Amino acid sequence: AKYISQCIDEIKQELKQDNIAVKANAVCKLTYLQMLGYDISWAAFNIIEVMSASKFTFKRIGYLAASQCFHEGTDVIMLTTNQIRKDLSSPNQYDTGVALTGLSCFVTPDLARDLANDIMTLMSHTKPYIRKKAVLIMYKVFLKYPESLRPAFPRLKEKLEDPDPGVQSAAVNVICELARRNPKNYLSLAPLFFKLMTSSTNNWVLIKIIKLFGALTPLEPRLGKKLIEPLTNLIHSTSAMSLLYECVNTVIAVLISLSSGMPNHSASIQLCVQKLRILIEDSDQNLKYLGLLAMSKILKTHPKSVQSHKDLILQCLDDKDESIRLRALDLLYGMVSKKNLMEIVKKLMIHVDKAEGTTYRDELLTKIIDICSQSNYQYITNFEWYISILVELTRLEGTRHGHLIAAQMLDVAIRVKAIRKFAVSQMAMLLDNAHLIASNTQRNGICEVLYAAAWICGEFSEHLEEANQTLEAMLRPKVTTLPGHIQAVYVQNMVKLYASILQQKEQAGEKEAAQEITQLMIERLPQFVQSADLEVQERASCILQLIKYIQKLQVKEVPVAEEVIALFAGELNPVAPKAQKKVPVPEGLDLDAWINEPPSDSESEDEKPKTIFHEEEQRHTRHRQPEIDEEELARRREARKQEQANNPFYIKSSPSPQKRYQDTPGVEHIPVVQIDLSVPLKVPGMPMSDQYVKLEEERRHKQKLEKDKKKKKQKKEKRGKHHRHNSLHTESEEDIAPAHHVDIITEEMPENALPSDEDDKDPNDPYKALDIDLDKPLADSEKLPVQRHRNVETLKSPDSELPLEEKKSKKPKKKEKKHKDKERDKGKKKEKEKKKSSKHKKKKHKKEKEEKSKDKKKSKKKSHHSEEEPPASVQNGTLEDEPLPPMSSYRLLAENPYIKMTYDIQGNLQNDSKVTVSVIFENKSTSFLKSMELNVLDSLNTKMLRPEGSSVHDGIPVPFQLPPGISNEAQFVFTLQSIVMAQKLKGTLSFIVKNDEGSTHEKLDFKLHFSCASYLITTPCYSDAFAKLLESGDLHMSSIKVDGISISFQHLLAKICFHHHFSVVERVDSCASMYSRSIQGHHVCLLVKKGENSVSIDGKCNDSTLLSNLLDEMKETLSKC
Amino acid sequence: MLFFSPLLPIQQMQFMLLFSRQGKLRLQKWYVPLSDKEKKKITRELVQTVLARKPKMCSFLEWRDLKIVYKRYASLYFCCAIEDQDNELITLEIIHRYVELLDKYFGSVCELDIIFNFEKAYFILDEFLLGGEVQETSKKNVLKAIEQADLLQESQNEDWGGLSEDIL
């Protein structure tokens, strides 16, 4: 460090010198130091100095240093703009190259904006070396300065067909990257890329294109079908693994997006799986890894085809490479079945034993639990086996996942009733051997399982065979070394145990034994009373007093067991997390109504307590008996609400079952559905999980023989099942029936809950926000600039989806209301169904009312939908059936060898007497065009808006110059009075042509045609409003008919929408009504009908002249089709 | 939904690092704008992770939301970060191609070459990749561009002696 600071001092000295060579050398050194992690931002200015050296040697070093250490926050960066521009236009291609390279690293939005035009010019540089760099850097420019995308895109597209392969691949790269971010804007390029894909032999390019298609196919399923064939061909033919891998990945993606409607996709999947198998079997670890990775993608949609390769994947579990083993583990998750679960887990257990390194072992542990517990223990046929697996897992040292095991133990013990006895015996053993688990280390996460063990033993103490022994184990002094929360559970469950022992002894009449046990408690409990943990201390002292009291009673020979046991009466049932929502709202309770007048406080504060209350309310309705009269309820509610509102810490109680038990004694009130179980449960000593595997096999064999008999029986039983209970003993795959008929108690639901999937939709789902009604006609303000610009303009900035967001925010309020209505509607429906299901008979008239209102809304909704769809699909430019040919609203204005002008006219609703004319100037020559000036001969009706103070004869300068081959757009505003007639204005463009031979002055005359359609603005219209408009009768009518139309109706409508600015109101078969509005507020309604080979259009409009002119224009458009 | 989320401006390759077996950074190229602090943190973390891996392990690892592709050549580790959807194998190929280029240019390249001519190593990388994208897939073209640029540099150096006095 000392040496370095010395160096830096030296460098500082060198930088002060005037000699550029010394400076460059110093900067070079700095660059190296920067790499070593030293801050050199102080030298930024010196770097710029070196960058601007005239010598390439120094310039190169300067740019390198800049590219390494400049970033957007570097403030001197703006000083470089002119230097870079100079270098970009340098005659030396390497100067240009080095500037481009440097720029690619530190381009800022400002630089991008200022230099975009220069770089664009370079895209048509004579040297491919520069072209290719310029093309690539454009991507960076687009990212920083999205506005540049539109003007630059046509040129970029041209480069796809550049003679130089390097430039071509650069263009492919850029477009692919753009398209991956916003694929829908690039769908139109698909045919071009398809051609490239089938013709290109460059693997780098192919990979990019294939990736691009992968992004496009979700948007255009038909593309996927087309792709499959060439992709499979490539998969067959290529020798390059990277290409093969990309193809396989894309095929998978395509097939996933197509998931249905592909007749022969199983063949393709099969092919992919085969190829992947080859990858996995390869000795190269990398290929193996990728093969497994891709396999897991297939697994999600086609688990069957992967399952056949189980052998291979199990083999990978033995791989030396941990990352490969982890990948294989991921795959295992999807491969288990009832048949092979035990076998797979056994294998994993062996790995657990062998594994070095705790991270891998922990991973294995979680995977085992994941695999076993997936989809509600679907694959477990023998829970005894699972419990013993869990117990075995507790022997793991140093795992962090003790709580996970504990949670599983609790879950299984609570939910699988039949297993409780076995579980309790196992847990008792665990408690007995607690010293083994706890002694390892204090920090050991595994002692968490004692928490579960203690709780299970206590809660289900009636199953305990040697309760005394367990109680003693729990009272050992060692226990006090456990973490506090575990001790607390110990203490609590000791009493449960104690209670059950007491009862047992009293029933047997062994009074002395009962007193002995009480004495034991009194002797041992004080050690907990001294605990430093508050919870433990509190519980212990409380219980100690209780037991002392019991002792007194016992001395008096009063039987106490019944009362003690009553402390813990009632059974615990798991409550489903969804249960809350399913509680029906009691009659007469309007949750949306304010109980108190809303306080005048700020709104945000009010809302929180309200929502909490909302949920709480429902829960309580479950606990309360219905006898409580309304008034009382309301009073309590109010009190509670106030309390909650005032308590910022009010949180709804956690759903975890064991906590519930402790916290809310009200659980007893939860209705318990009794299940009759007659399960023959042998507890064979202390079985190891391996034994089960054997047992299982034997059993299965036996079962096969008895299968026929059983089958009948089972079926009967099944039918009789209560609908709320998942039965595990469905006839599983083939012949395997589970060892015992275990019912997994599904989580508790409130009585009259409706078993619906409705609530699976999480209201907080982030995607829901995106679930915008896209079919709704766009309001004017949120219209995408699709219709009036040429295709290219549909491209949006690559990294922002602004318009979408805008839509969200600008959504009119009406719409929201509608939504709410709908939702309420839904709610009502639900409610009704609930009522039905609960067999509560409601008063009839009420129901009818609901029905009526619902119907009304429904019909409304329907009509809205039908009217909304067509315009949206047309506006977006794609139709369900066929793609539209690209359309451009830009018409040719004038053209000569130097320049070509195209234009488009747009009106806007805000201003009834102005239209904007956008003119695209395209330089067709090899010369530089400058000083362009546009002038128009105004008519009485239509005038060009000129800056104040200039006369009618002055032209308006075009605000840019045009290098060769460049095009750019300028806008001119015109004012007009009447819009009922089309207008033509004569005009001239004057400009100076500058080339090597000098400059010449040139002129180009043109005629600007204001069609009537250009005064129209696409305005969406609802069918009811449309009908009213037609009914009102103050519209003039006119009609036309055009023969010889061959294009489809869909296309035809799209054309009218596009060129004449109409929107479709409603479409029925080959008949459609359309609407548009002029900037001066004329309504124009059309009825378009398609006959055999003709189209007839009836029009209605406030102004007959406008209408007839419009229809004439339309006739012209249509006759071209 | 990927297509709707406003993605960060990211490109194929996020950055490339070269470091020695001892964990010394030899070359770094960042294709994403990050603060120096961030860069240092990432570098430290990655160097540690990669060096900890055993030689027989595969060349890919998942790190944060990126994929790391690395390969060891002699005493140097070449390490690239790519996006989730990108192709690991092609990245491996890019690394290999770059090593080949260095090899051709320096003539059986070794770590010392890269230390002493680090700016050259950067120049070659810049000719090969631009903004994280492959710029030139032909080895010959890359080397030609570098050689010509070098030639230009030398020719300027020759007459530099005379000119510099003019500047002074």
UniProtKB/TrEMBL annotation, chain A:
Ranges where the AP-3 complex subunit delta domain occurs: 628-775
Compositionally skewed regions (Acidic residues) per UniProt: 745-762
Its membrane topology: Peripheral membrane protein
GO cellular component, one term: terminal bouton
Function field: Part of the AP-3 complex, an adaptor-related complex which is not clathrin-associated. The complex is associated with the Golgi region as well as more peripheral structures. It facilitates the budding of vesicles from the Golgi membrane and may be directly involved in trafficking to lysosomes. Involved in process of CD8+ T-cell and NK cell degranulation. In concert with the BLOC-1 complex, AP-3 is required to target cargos into vesicles assembled at cell bodies for delivery into neurites and nerve terminals.
PANTHER family in the record: AP-3 COMPLEX SUBUNIT DELTA-1, DELTA ADAPTIN-RELATED
Name the record gives this protein: AP-3 complex subunit delta-1
From TrEMBL, chain B:
Entry's Gene Ontology cellular component terms: AP-1 adaptor complex; clathrin-coated pit
Protein topology in the membrane: Peripheral membrane protein
GO MF annotation: an example: clathrin adaptor activity
Gene3D superfamilies: 3.30.450.60
InterPro entries xref list: AP1_sigma, AP_complex_ssu, AP_mu_sigma_su, Clathrin_sm-chain_CS, Longin-like_dom_sf
Localisation: Cytoplasmic vesicle membrane; Golgi apparatus; Membrane, Clathrin-coated pit
PANTHER family given in the database record: ADAPTOR COMPLEXES SMALL SUBUNIT FAMILY (PTHR11753)
Protein role: Subunit of clathrin-associated adaptor protein complex 1 that plays a role in protein sorting in the late-Golgi/trans-Golgi network (TGN) and/or endosomes. The AP complexes mediate both the recruitment of clathrin to membranes and the recognition of sorting signals within the cytosolic tails of transmembrane cargo molecules.
Sequence similarity: Belongs to the adaptor complexes small subunit family.
Oligomeric form and interacting partners: Adaptor protein complex 1 (AP-1) is a heterotetramer composed of two large adaptins (gamma-type subunit AP1G1 and beta-type subunit AP1B1), a medium adaptin (mu-type subunit AP1M1 or AP1M2) and a small adaptin (sigma-type subunit AP1S1 or AP1S2 or AP1S3). Binds to MUC1.
Protein name listed in UniProt: AP complex subunit sigma
